[in-house]
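A student in our group prepared the protein record below, which I am reviewing. This is what I was given:
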Amino acid sequence: MDAVGTVFRLIWELGVYLYTVVPDLLPIILALATPLALGALCGVLNERSGVVNIGIEGIMLMAAFFGYLTGFALHDAVGSGVSIALGILAAVFVGALLGLVHAWLTVSVRADQIIAGTMMNIAAFGVTGYLNRLIITPSGRGGAGVIAPFHLPDAIANLPFVGPILVMFLDQGPIAMSVLFIVIALQFALFRTRWGLRTRAVGEHPKAADTVGIDVYRQRYLNVIFGCALAGLAGAFLTLESTGSFQNGMTNGRGFIALAAMIFGRWTPIGALAGALLFGTATALGVVVSIRIPEGDLGDIMRSIPSYWYAALPYLMTIVILAGVVGRSTPPAADGVPYVKEGKG
């Protein structure tokens, strides 16, 4: 009974600890989840139309670099606000352009979709690392700046129960703030509009979609390009809203975690956001438990765990979710299968 009592006491202390720290972490959780959610939405739009894209990591990194480079180059000439806005546009454009390349390779050329995504990742790490060392590092100039976040009035932020939730979603910069609205819009569009019906049709049964007049190639191109533009927005968040700087390889596996969030969310926008928030929570807790350890036996246990385990928490969660969810989740039937129109084979 003593052992059982100790376990229940530790569970109680953990609950109290989480109740204490989580409300303060909510804005941080959304900030950490923003690039994951946008990357997961890219995956949803791509795979719902039948195209696998594991190059999200590389697309985010390329967009982060070129968005930062645009803001960095124009900062002195046009001012911080305009240069950041142009940097965001540049990042989205780069994402869309890389989406066009990926669509051409996978839809028109019918290249292996895994190889095409892997090539995108390898090229992104090489190109951004080289250009960063060639252009930005030797310049000795300051950064591109960051977008100033919006802050709710204290009267609203301090409201019981709803205050922390409002702070989580609205006490943010514009990109993080837009994630919830993008998710709601895509959820509605994917399951309540003609575009969504066509997207799901070409992802489930492209031949049947073709017979009723849907242009499978065009639909896949549009979805891949638009989805990769969202991944470009995720890259812009990393450099122009979150950190204000660019570091080599700064995506740090976020593109792959975004794919895990997509699978966890069963290829739906709302589910993808939930998965991203779950990973964001794991990352935030991994940080806070290493610097804000509770008292008592629970604190002693937490201190005994090496800090690198906390840092690895979101990646461990990725492995667990992929191992436990992939077999139970059913992707679109034609996901990853190139479509050959009759008479074109």
In short: The chain is about 75% helix and 0% strand. Residues 38 and 265 are 13 Å apart (CA to CA). The first helix runs from residue 2 to 48. The chain has a mean pLDDT of 89.
